[in-house]
Write a structure and sequence with these properties.
By secondary structure, this protein is mostly helical. The chain has six helices and no strands.
């Protein structure tokens, strides 16, 4: 016997049994079914998106505060790094401009303390 024949026989027996039920029992069953349907809780609608909606609601939302804090920390680190690089570039620009403008005395290139001299503010800034 295959599945199709089995389901046909089960359906036939259930239909026969449903016809043999007396009217009082059928009314009681109908009232019980309606009461059960009335008390059935309606599940709130959630996104499905192939399971991503449930994952977002069950996993990501409880951890949202942590995720926002980590995102803020990452943005702060990126911002500080960018600002430091900008400041270093500005300092290098001033040194390069002085070298290219030939404002440095010739002895500065020959002096062993050249790096110390470069770190001091120029006379034009004072």
């Amino acid at each position: 016997m295959n599945d199709r024949e089995f389901t046909y026989k089960v359906r036939h027996l259930l239909n026969q049994g449903a016809h043999d039920i007396d009217r009082v029992t059928a009314d009681k069953l109908m009232k019980a079914r309606q009461a059960a349907l009335a008390h059935q809780k309606v599940a709130p609608a959630q996104l499905s998106l192939a399971g991503f909606g449930h994952m977002a609601a069950d996993v990501l939302l409880p951890q949202a505060r942590t995720l926002v804090a980590l995102l803020g920390l990452a943005l702060a680190v990126i911002g500080v790094t960018y600002w430091n690089n900008y400041e270093q570039a500005t300092e290098n620009e001033e040194i390069d401009s002085a070298l290219l403008a030939d404002e440095l005395p010739i002895n500065a290139y020959l002096d062993r303390g050249f790096h110390v001299w470069l770190e001091q503010p120029s006379s034009s800034q004072q």
